[in-house]
Amino acid sequence: MQFGIFSVGDVTPDPTTGRTPTERERIKAMVAIALKAEEVGLDVFATGEHHNPPFVPSSPTTMLGYIAARTEKLVLSTSTTLITTNDPVKIAEDFAMLQHLADGRVDLMMGRGNTGPVYPWFGQDIRQGINLAIENYALLHRLWREDVVDWEGKFRTPLQGFTSTPRPLDGVPPFVWHGSIRSPEIAEQAAYYGDGFFHNNIFWPADHTKRMVELYRTRYAHYGHGAPEQAVVGLGGQVFMRRNSQDAVREFRPYFDVAPVYGHGPSLEEFTAQTPLTVGSPQQVIEKTLSFREYAGDYQRQLFLMDHAGLPLKTVLEQLDLLGEEVVPVLREEFARNRPADVPDAPTHGSLLAGAKTGEGAQA
């Protein structure tokens, strides 16, 4: 099982000081957080993609390429690549290039994003969001697997005898997760291709996440990729820790109360009771994260959001120390306990390459 962090790259004022970091400071902070993730033994760093203030990660492959040059083991991913408003040809080429630069330490998460105005900015219609996701990914899937592609669809100009370059490293495309909070069509899409399904697992109660994951697992088996338990599932989550739980609540409350996404709404206590957000001691984080298996089954990837809502870099790095030293080692051991032998590990370039050689690779 893989553990890591994901960032949405928001530029948010620190409510305790009133200071807003510059865009440069925030970008550099995201890099520092990724490097810290590798230092403390995490497996994955994932960045979002946004094209509007107050966010900075408009070019994920640029950032991940820079981080690739400064890391050795970290899997570099996205916590959404906008399949609706990006050209699938450009996605194919950008991530294949990143694959080569990072020696295969690359995967990505497809999604529609949560910012409506991005559609017209890139010449698309938000009312076609699902159809764009389906058609664009169908083309991307072919571009990575066919050396020469002839293609015609509704949303972009046709391709005749087109070859995407560079070709995927070792002939093996990056593993794809399809991320969705509420759209069953995206869970269906992930299942159809035998790809991974990622639920961000931050804003919704457990019963909703359970329904989405169960739908994906059922349809994964329907399409002949394996048993439902063999489907590849990832979950998000958000935590804030101090060794004393009261200290964690007291310190995080002002950030929670004005957070861009959930601020000015339910209280911190209400939100933590109804969603996977955990604010407390490392032991409380361990216990709540382990409970995810009760409704998601044995899954492959757990990512945490830790640098949101104006938290200063120093605080985030302290959180990563706690995560890497006190939380993840216990989670690795506990999640491995009684894990059925036929539940696959999280896909990597190495495992996909081995599978391709034996004819058993994912995303065939």
The helix fraction, in percent, is: 40-55%
Low-confidence stretches: none
What is the overall shape? globular
Mean pLDDT: 93
Q: Structural class of the helices, strands and pairings?
A: alpha/beta
List keywords for this structure.
single chain; 364 residues; alpha/beta; nine-stranded parallel sheet; two-stranded antiparallel sheet; 12 helices; 13 strands; 14% strand; globular; Luciferase-like_sf
Give the secondary structure arrangement, pairings included.
Layout: E1 2-7, H1 23-39, E2 44-47, H2 60-68, E3 75-78, E4 81-82, H3 88-101, E5 107-111, H4 118-121, H5 129-143, E6 149-151, E7 159-162, E8 175-179, H6 184-193, E9 196-199, H7 206-222, E10 233-235, E11 239-241, H8 245-257, H9 268-274, E12 278-280, H10 282-296, E13 301-305, H11 313-336, H12 349-358
Parallel strand pairs: 1-2, 1-13, 2-3, 4-5, 5-8, 8-9, 9-10, 10-13, 11-12
Antiparallel strand pairs: 6-7
Helix pairs in contact: 1-11, 2-3, 3-5, 6-7, 10-11
